Structure formats: structure tokens, C-alpha cells
Amino acid sequence: MLPLVLASSSPYRRExxxxxxxxxxxxxxxxxxxxxxxxxxxxxxxxLAREKAQALQNSHPRHLIIGSDQVAVLDGQILGKPHxxxxxxxxxxxxxxxxxxxxxxxxLLNSENHHCQVDCISFTVHFRPLSEAQITRYLHAEQPYDxxxxxxxxxxxxxxxxSTQGADASSLIGLPLIRLVDMLxxxxxxIP
Length: 192
Hints:
alpha/beta, Maf protein, elongated
């Protein structure tokens, strides 16, 4: 079996991949994540997931390389990582009482034969109506400034939700494990 490498520095993706109980290494890909003009969200995340995996193929020959990228979409607009309290507050105020679609691009590249499987997994979060005081308390408690959508679904962020909808809840955290297991099976990796 070819060794696995996760093309990411994300601790969230690392924790998710560890659930599959297979040894893996991590390496940070150096790619330009700028959105192309007129590129829709699904095309963007699939392209970036593929490019992250491809960025490691020369340094990791004979590996299965996992790339992933995620964006949140609210009212047709792509939300990036907020990076600051103010931007996170604005994102959550805009999402209050609405639905946000999270699109996660996933790629599995066999660097030995260059075969690459790519997909986009959708997951929707329906937010409760949120007051500015609730949002401020949440942001001070969890500081999710490195997370698309300005929350951590695996933590207190779940308190902001009215409901969720989608086939794979792990995709919301950034690595769709159900689809990844399918891709790994296609590449000859047995899990469990």
C-alpha cells in the first residue's frame, strides 16, 4: 500500500484523517489560492484541492496525496476565513437566520501513476437568528478566525445552528471522510 500524505497544515483536517486509523504524514503545499475571474465556488474548491495534492507529487513520489479546500457561500457570495473579530462578527451577523452552504473540494492523487480523483461535497448549515451579543460571546469564547464561516462546528459553534443538512458532517470541518474512504477504496486502500 502506498503511504498517505495530507497536503495541509490544518489541525482540523489532521484530527479528522486520524479517525481512519491509518498512518499518514502531513506536508504544507505552497500554492496560490487566488480565485480565478468568474470561477464559481465548486470549481474553485475542486481546483485548489487538486493543486494542493499536485504541489506535493514531486516531493512525495509513490504516495497517495490528499488535498482539500473549503469555502462557505452565503447569498451567492463566497465567505473566506475571517482572520479578525470584526470580519467574523460581520459574517455571523449576515448568516443570522439564514442558510450557509459549505463546499469542500477533495482530491486523492496517486503520485506514482498520476491518477487523481476529485469531488466537491456540499453541506448546509441553517443558522438560528443571532443577536450581536450572542455572536460577541461566541467569538470571544472560541475565536474561530481561521475557520470558513466564522465558527467551529466541532465545538461551541454548534450552538449557533438551527439545523444542518448533508450527507457527510465531517465535510463541514474540512475533510469529507465518507467520500475520502470511497476514494481510498478505489485506490486499493482497505478501511477498516
